[in-house]
Specification:
single chain, about 525 residues, mainly alpha, 25 helices, globular, disordered C terminus
Length: about 525
């Protein structure tokens, strides 16, 4: 890296250390660990496990490496987990509640009054309404029932799993097979085996688009073929439009990419032609998807009241009131406005008033508390049900329901396990400050952008932070690989086609670090 790159990366690392450090210690003090007070034995088992892992860390690392080198074993393990998802989560899912439930019920309801009123004020959820209608039409679903809910849950799982696959392929392309498998494991532990699998909402809809976009960017950077770059760029445009329509904040990583690329175009004028062609293809793909979406959504259009449309400033007002998610009084005051113009004026007035009330010292203190609220719950609202939890008389189903349902017999253990995984996830993300490559720079800049977005707009729930996981997961894997290596660095395998590419070489080949002693010995 050049000197100014190193300086920028250093500034980013300080910001990441601050954000992830606060999140880590806050999550460590979470009430989700309360089961330990009931069963002190867990402390003993965990303590022995940590001591054993430290004592035999080299053997443990060798065993893990061998396991991940065995493609057949890893594929079998991942396939079993995938089958588990499809078999268990749809069977324990129930009628969707909250905002997602309003959309879900509205898709099947003959009376469109409720959904029309809802989408008039929450027009950002129109795309998921169209998406669910398309699913209903394609599969010939008639009404809300047990079978329909299971179908939507399966599709929700597939959405997440598609994203997991693209993140794994991304890491495999840049850092080798073991990194790819490790990424898939982290994906499953953080998201793939918990209550997110049956929460059908915009988070799941935008997830694969963001992961695909990151993967396509890496493919473009590693290709010296104009044809491939144009194809990948066009598909990337489709993914960007898909993600933006589902959840506008999903394209924050693209802003980070643009910042990175502009800085490098300024240094090398010839680089402009390569990335310029990609931009054109991306724009074509974006417009193409937007056109397809418009045509596909035509049959499901509703007569929305534009005067009720939400404005961006109202989410800023929500983000600075209460704990950062708004208050009942603020929401009522904004919703009472008769036009979008008045709503904007009321929201701006509330935002300015709160900013003045908090003052120079109070506002940073408020943001710290909001950040802690956004990153503290590793269960993503497990104890606040997002579905109707109806317990089954079937013993097997009842067992799994007691694991994941908010009032289940074993939910405290589930909360403990999820929180523990989440704490380790945050710690590994924090450790990514040891990795100073240009790709990690993009990931860190994206992560900083997502947190800045959450701090400015409505947030204060860990569920919102999931939208940043497509960049947090690769960072966590890089951090883990850096820590596990003998020399506190990790070995990176770069595909031959990326080594040959002169333009890509500047940012990809710099990823290579010293190989560990074990790998040198093996060679």
């Amino acid at each position: 890296m050049k000197r100014d790159d190193t300086l920028c990366h250093g500034i980013l690392n300080v910001a990441i250390m601050l954000l992830m450090g606060l999140a880590f210690f806050n999550a460590l003090a979470s009430g989700n660990f309360k089961v330990i007070t009931k069963y002190g034995l867990i402390w003993g088992v965990l303590g022995l496990g940590v001591l054993a892992a430290v004592r035999y860390r080299q053997k443990l690392k060798t065993a893990c490496d061998r396991c991940m080198e065995n493609t057949r074993w890893m594929v079998c393990i991942l396939a079993v987990l995938g089958v588990f998802q499809i078999l268990v989560f749809p069977l324990i899912s129930g009628t969707i509640l909250s905002d997602a439930g309003v959309v879900y019920q509205g898709v099947f309801s003959e009376d469109k009054a409720v959904i029309t009123d809802y989408l008039s004020s929450c027009q950002n959820n129109v795309p998921i309404y169209v998406y669910e209608n398309l699913i209903r039409s394609i599969l010939g679903l008639k009404e809300v029932n047990r079978f329909t809910t299971m179908i939507y849950t399966v599709i929700n799982i597939i959405n997440y799993d598609i994203g997991f696959v693209f993140l794994s392929l991304l890491m495999k392309k840049l850092y080798g097979k073991k990194a790819g498998f490790l990424t898939m494991i982290v994906c499953l532990l953080t998201l793939g085996l918990n209550n997110q699998m049956y929460q059908f909402y915009t988070t799941a809809l935008s997830w694969p688009a963001t992961c695909l976009g990151l993967y396509l960017y890496v493919c473009i950077k590693g290709s010296d073929s104009l044809k491939k770059r144009l194809i990948f760029g066009g598909i990337w445009g489709l993914a960007v439009a898909w993600g933006y329509l589902a959840r506008p904040s999903s394209i924050i990583y693209l802003i980070a990419v643009v910042i990175f690329e502009v800085l490098h175009i300024c240094r090398r004028k010839e680089y402009f032609l390569k990335m310029g062609s990609v931009c054109v293809a991306l724009l074509v793909g974006f417009l193409l998807f937007s056109g397809i979406y418009h045509l596909a959504g035509k049959p499901y259009e509703l007569e929305l009241d534009e005067n009720k449309h939400a404005v961006m400033t109202q989410f800023m007002a929500y983000g600075i009131t209460g704990n950062g998610s708004g208050t009942k009084e603020v929401r009522e005051a904004i919703n009472a406005a008769e036009t979008t113009k008045e709503r904007n004026q009321v929201a701006v007035q509330i935002w300015k008033g709160e900013l003045k009330r908090l003052g120079v010292l109070g506002y940073p203190d408020f943001l710290v508390k909001k950040h802690l609220a956004e990153t503290g719950d590793g269960t993503y609202g497990l104890l606040n049900p997002h579905i109707e939890e109806v317990y089954s008389s079937n013993r097997v189903l009842n067992f799994f329901q007691n694991i994941w349902y908010s009032q289940g017999k074993y939910v405290d253990f589930t909360a403990f396990a999820m929180q523990l995984v989440y704490v380790l996830f945050l710690l590994c993300t924090l450790m990514s400050v040891k990795v100073k490559t240009q790709f990690s720079f993009i990931l860190k800049l994206s992560l900083l952008g997502w947190h800045a977005f959450l701090l400015l707009f409505e947030g204060a729930r860990t569920g919102y932070t999931i939208q940043a996981f497509p960049v947090m997961i690769p960072l966590a894997v890089l951090g883990l690989m850096a820590v596990l290596s003998k020399d506190m660095q990790y070995s990176v395998k770069i595909p031959d086609d990326t080594r040959k590419n002169g333009n890509g070489e500047d940012w990809i080949e710099k990823h290579e670090l010293k190989e560990s002693g074990a790998e040198k010995e093996k060679e």
